[in-house]
Design brief:
- With about 240 residues, the protein is α+β, with helices and mostly antiparallel strands.
- It has five helices and 13 strands.
- The chain has a single domain, classed as Metallo-beta-lactamase, Chain A.
- α4 packs across α5.
- Bound molecules: zinc ion.
- Zinc ion binds next to α2.
């Protein structure tokens, strides 16, 4: 667990509890706190979140970067959780035109922008925090294997995300939901590895999003594996 600042916590589920080792983010406002993802369920996240929120009078909102099992597995530990389907996600955040509409979520003196970015799963979201300028990208961009079952959607989503940033929303760091790269350029761990020696750092520079967008544009409509220093695009 790491406090990025006094209202922003980054939690990682230990690799020894599950090889996915997903990251979970807690963004706290004056009225609400947003917990983004709940991990694989092989760890007691609730205890950690309760501890992080101790002494703060805020309503907890639990939502997801996307609906895959390694990000929703701990849902049962929480009383109320935003649903996983596109319909449920759109309804909760007030998105009437999926995926083209970007909406805001006010946590109380802290406004987030919620950006639909389907392509990896279907209900994928990116979250931009205007306060810290962190861009949370789930499994759509992180130092690892970016699995892409829906190539056209993913390309459009990354383009929209890059355009959102270029349109006056500067990013300090891009933070995703896993680490699967080593600290050697272009080299990932074997699939399922639950020990990560010489791991790549979590945070990606904002230029990495530009790099991904340009790589997808150059690749064109045919899915292809793209090995870069900090990520590998992995069609499936
Ligand atoms: Zn994942």
């Amino acid at each position: 667990m790491h406090w990025y600042d006094e209202r922003t916590a980054i939690v990682r589920q230990a690799l020894r509890t599950n090889f996915e080792g997903p990251f979970v983010y807690l963004l706290i406002g004056s009225e609400r706190a947003l917990l983004l993802d709940t991990g694989t369920g092989h760890a007691d996240l609730r205890v950690v979140v309760d501890e992080l929120l101790a002494g703060r009078d805020v309503e907890l909102v639990v939502a997801h970067t996307h609906g895959h099992g390694d990000h929703v597995g701990g849902d049962g530990q929480f009383d109320r959780v935003v649903g996983r389907s596109v319909e449920e996600v759109a309804a909760f955040f007030g998105i009437t035109s999926w995926p083209g509409e970007i909406v805001s979520l006010d946590l109380g003196e802290r406004v987030l922008d919620v950006i639909p970015i389907p392509g990896h799963e279907g209900s994928d979201l990116a979250v931009y925090d205007r306060e810290t300028r962190l861009l949370l990208t789930g499994d759509s961009l992180y130092p690892g294997r970016l699995y892409v079952p829906d190539w056209p959607s993913y390309r459009s989503s990354i383009r929209r995300l890059a355009e959102f940033v270029a349109a006056g929303n500067p990013v300090e760091w891009v933070l995703g939901a896993h680490i699967e790269m080593t600290d050697r350029p272009g080299e990932d761990y074997p699939m399922g590895a639950d020990v990560h020696a010489d791991e790549h750092r979590l945070e990606l520079a904002p230029e990495t999003l530009t790099e991904l967008d340009e790589a997808l544009a150059a690749a064109g409509p045919e899915p292809g594996r793209l090995v870069h220093d900090h990520f590998v695009v992995f069609p499936r």
